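Dear colleagues,

I hope this message finds you well. In preparation for our joint manuscript, I am sending the tRNA (guanine(10)-N(2))-methyltransferase TRMT11 (Phyllostomus discolor) sequence together with its predicted structure, so that both groups work from identical material. I would be grateful if you could confirm receipt.
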Amino acid sequence: MRILAVAMALPCSLNRYLLLLAQEHLEFRLPEIKSLLSLFGGQFTNSQETYGKSPFWILSIPSEDIARNLMKRTVCAKSIFELWGHGKSPEELYSSLKNYPVEKMVPFLHSGSTYKIKIHTFNKTLTQEEKVKRIDALEFLPFEGKVNLKNPQHIFSVLEDYGLDPNCIPENPHNIYFGRWIADGQRELIESYSVKKRHFIGNTSMDAGLSFIMANHGKVKENDIVFDPFVGTGGLLVASAHFGAYVCGTDIDYNTVHGLGKASRKNQKWRGPDENIRANLRQYGLEKYYLDVLVSDASKPSWRKGTYFDAIITDPPYGIRESTRRTGSQKETPKGIEKCPESHVPVSLSYHLSDMFFDLLNFAAETLILGGRLVYWLPVYTPEYTEDMVPWHPCLKLISNCEQKLSSHTSRRLITMEKVKKFEATINWTVREENKMPLRAPLWSRWA
Ligand SMILES: C[S@@+](CC[C@H](N)C(=O)[O-])C[C@H]1O[C@@H](n2cnc3c(N)ncnc32)[C@H](O)[C@@H]1O
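The corresponding structure tokens are as follows:
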């Protein structure tokens, strides 16, 4: 009933598409799809029918081009179909298909065309005989083309949803869909960019799938400039460059930036001569997107005042596998002496996590273009976590906040913020306006 009501309320220009999602990183899916739709001009309105953990969502999108663009980017979704019919039983599906406008079907069913029909089930396996039965039951559709199983022009799918519980598989599906396949998503990037096969890696190199999700949450697009202030081995730069952005980064660690020191791979003691971020980009044919990486301390950014970046995508150190540190002397620097002599080699001080996030947000607020996004991981101690603890800045609007569990008591949250206001250095934002909670409260003390 709800679905019919929504469908009737749809403006005529919106078509309904069935999105088949991967059952991985569930919380990251909605912000990814929303971000990508807004990047390609398809709004995410209340008429979208997203069903939490279900792999089947129905999206209302103005054009097939937008649906195709979405699939050129998403790593959370597997495929998209133009939805021709939907029901809770075969009978409901067939009557819904009979109501689908014939003029919308005909271009794909005419006598000169070739096609095949596939059966896709979620949480149940069907026998070949059961599949054939389902295909035969569709003979009332005006198929006039020829079946071609190897190389058809058009592929149609029946998709049956048997729910999420593998221990309680119902006899009949909860939902059945029929649609014309439009495109697949970018799931294969997870394998082709796997860090296992990456030229230069470190202990904390970001997983390929999550790197692409972060770039999608950040709405990274062609010709953008993307910056990672905690660049490490450049995993996040690789993902952004894959989407056509020019990339740069900084890291406090001289050896990481220069590709020197001990290797992170088993059976290899020292890093080889060309193990560095530029070589990683070269490995994937993306070297032209490499701007540069510098040794620099994120607590003392070395940038002239200005707005440079379309997105800042980063994975700050958590103090577990990678220590948080900043440059400085153990002694307090006397006031008035700000410059170090050239021979000075900075020693590192511990860099409290709350200070680090404070600096990161301030830096993003200052250097992002209006509408630019900051995407970063926030470590949390789950028993004490509340939403108030998410760092805040008056120039940055929180877009999404998704949890990835790490252990029973710890997790990290992927935070996406968008710059919505011009930066003014004079803004006092150390205290939350609404609840006066000090931003620098030691909420990460258990991690530091
Ligand atoms: C979690 S790792 C980033 C991993 C990276 N995303 C990758 O794919 O390899 C965090 C990085 O922050 C760097 N770091 C720590 N403190 C820093 C600081 N004050 N300024 C800049 N980089 C810092 C560490 O050297 C480390 O390489």
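For the figure legend, we might mention the following. Confidence is low (pLDDT under 50) at residues 1-12, 330-347, 431-448. Residues 202, 204-206, 229-230, 232-233, 235-236, 250-253, 256, 297-299, 315, 317, 322, 324-326, 351 surround S-adenosylmethionine (CB under 6 Å).

With kind regards,
E.M.
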